[in-house]
Amino acid sequence: MTKRVLICANPDLNYIDGSSIWSQTIALATAATGEAEVDFLAKSAPQRQELFGPLTKAENLTVLDGTAPEHWRGKRHSRLTLPMMAELAVHLDKKHPYDVIIVRGQAIATQLLDAPDVLAKCWMYLTDIPQVTDEYTPQARQTMKRLAQGCQRVLCQTQGFKELWNALVPGCDQRKFALYTPVIPDLPDNLLPLMQRPKRAVYAGKFTGDWKTLEKATVWPDVHDQVPDSELVMIGDKIHNEPQNPDYKKRMRKALETTRGLNWLGAQPRESVQQQLQQAWVGLSWRDESMNHTVEYSTKMLEYGGAGCAAIVNRNPLHEQLLGPDYPLFANSADEFKNQLMKAFEEPKIAQQAADTLRQLAERHTFTTRVGEIRQWLDEAPEATRSSDKTKVLVAGHDLKFFTLLQKKLEATGQFEFLIDQWQGHNKHDEAKSRLLLAQADVIFCEWCLGNLKWYSHNKKPGQRLIARFHAQEARVPYMGEAIWDNIDLISFVSEHTRRQALDTFKGFPFDKTTVIPNYLDETKFTPKKKTGDARFTLGMVGVAPKSKRLDRALDLLEALLEEDGRYCLRVKGKHPLDYDWLLKREDELKYYRNIFERINSSPSLRYKVIFDPPGDDVNNWFTMVGYVLSPSDHESFHMAIGEGILTGTTPIIWAWDGAGEIWGAKYVKKSVQEAKQAIISSKLTNNVSKKLTFAISPQDVLQSWQRLFRES
What we know:
This is Glycosyltransferase. This protein is α/β, with parallel strands linked by helices and 713 residues long. Helices cover 39% and strands 16% of the residues. Helix 8 runs parallel beside helix 9, helix 8 packs across helix 13 and helix 11 packs across helix 14 (348-362).
């Protein structure tokens, strides 16, 4: 079956350099397999025909102008940003799903982490990443792990890139990795030997400091004087701005226009570039010393070899691996470059030896070879899920805040369509609306096992599956006991101890109709960041109502710590307890918090050490001020704040409520204020960038568990 493929890459084909040629080539090669219909997403409106021309002429290939108004609510953009490229790729995929999306560029790939269904189709090719593992922060490593695990295939330009990925993501499925080395046109059979060519040096590509293009032009007059019949041809028109060298662009252009013996051809179609290379004696690929540890190599070096000419390149580990340590035209300085250029012209046997070595390397990177490899990868790629294949899930409940994020992630897989039946209370709903939605559903999901579960268990249709999630309060109300248990396919619990309590309350409910799936923790939102201020002396609580959250225990701990060091404080994040209408109506709750505030305000040690921070969607940043996140509750079903704190690198201090050790690990559970105090005092927190602590709850596992539940027939 023909696969639908989208090319979404950061290079702009209105500018000619190695990366834009890469984008053009992979589009042409994929279309040439005969097994794909390819859409190429253009970053700016196609204007230059040097690279866009072959794409528009190719069969099975369509160029999409990403800036077109129909993509942006009637507004045309001059050029897309990389986040816009990712956004448009997601939009196009949802409109007409692709089987494969080929992505080049870290910024685009990272944006797709929020669209896991799109990422799961991606073949990623990333060269704009640090090439040394020591340069990755814990957060950056986590990002690379999520990219590798979430995508369909990782294309590595060299073995060095593959080794880098394996170091960053140990244990990743090796079948995901494939070498995608640079590609050059098929090699002609009738190339002229060097002795029959003019004494011509050639450079094709962008003009930038690291590529030493100004230095190449500056050295040329000396070479030209000693080899009078020589010529330097430079091809390309992309001259970079150099922030450290403000007049670089002006000097480079002047050198191109005025240097003796230098012929600047400007931008040329790839076919014309090949013709120039096939008439050249030596290609110039000398670069700055800072690039000697790269694991990325130049397409242009291969093109020089494929055209039968020699090339001057840096001596570095990669080039020695590819060409051998005895390759005769290595250069690592301006003097070496000049001397090697003279040698190439004056010693034809050495130049021919270099040309032969390069040609042997180039033969392994031809267009036809690559077409065959891509054809195999396309055969292995699964077909995309079409809209008709989506499972319709009816979500019913009065409070859906715990499911909203999970729903978003499940929607992003492309496997589900969600219908929402918003109830007005535990047992209050619009019955007509519920029946209308019920008629459309494949699966019914009741968030909370309350009146919603009771009603749907009495009204579900044959063939529909009924799944519910039990939190904790359901054990104190009768609704689950009044449901038709035979019509319930599965109850999910957020923790093992909650399941124990529920089955003890509702005796006789089948154990094999239950499962435990922890709450989904958003590791894209909660990430390690550098701690600020006196975070190592700061305790934190997220939410302190109702009274079972036991703010009084947190105050006991704070007082004990202040006896040792006056820098300790407690920050409380969230809605103020006295701002809850329901709390003000409960005398016992109201009395508890009045006593709490009187205790704080009347205590010289506590009065200025308890800070109430307002609610808001800034908890990740708030955690940068907090060294220890507390859970002093009498009971919890899960306690999301602990997981969010762990994801940010904040150390949990948990009282021994039932199930705490099972969920978060016994090492974080403390049996008394003194034990909690000792754990904090003896810890060695710093304000460095936090490292995400490890725990057994994998967000990816949670997501996959719900996918399986909703997709089961």
